[in-house]
Amino acid sequence: MAGYSRLRRNSAQRKALLRDLVTDLILNGSIETTAVKAKELKRIADKMITLGKTNTLASRRQAAEFIRFEKDAEGKFAIQKLFDEIAPKFANRNGGYTRVIKTGVRRGDATQMAIISFVE
Known about the structure:
Helices cover 50% and strands 17% of the residues. It is an alpha+beta fold. The chain has one domain (11-118): CATH 3.90.1030.10.
């Protein structure tokens, strides 16, 4: 078995889905999704925060390749928010920046749902 879940999508669709989810997580702070998607998102979000902690031009470019250029309600781009607000909060922490809390099953198809958010 591979080291990741395929999420019943081909590689381009899976990458697009995870890019959207990590961008929404950075902009909103927490999102509700399925437990399997949250588990995959956790790996990528932790990598993005690690890039944000190094805060070099190379790390900004690597993060910009993956994170979409969307703005939050205050008009800040997701990249700016990651490097200016989120990553400095975790300067003294070595990993484990996000948490996944299982909430129950979805009514329509009985899929396990979860909330993924940043650890304070």
